[in-house]
Amino acid sequence: MQHMAKLGVIVPSNRPNRVGSTVASWVVDTIGEGWDVDLIDLREIALPAFDEPSSPKQGLPRTTSHAQAWADRVQALDALVVVTPEYNGSYPCSLKNAIDYLYAELQDLPSGVVGYGWGGGQGAIDATEAVLTRLKARVESEVALFFRQDLDVEGNLFVTDEKVAALRDLGTRLQNAVAEAKAA
Ligand SMILES: Cc1cc2nc3c(=O)[nH]c(=O)nc-3n(C[C@H](O)[C@H](O)[C@H](O)COP(=O)(O)O)c2cc1C
Question: Which one of 115, 121, 138, 181 has the fewest CB atoms closer than 10 angstroms to its CB?
Answer without folding.
Answer: 181
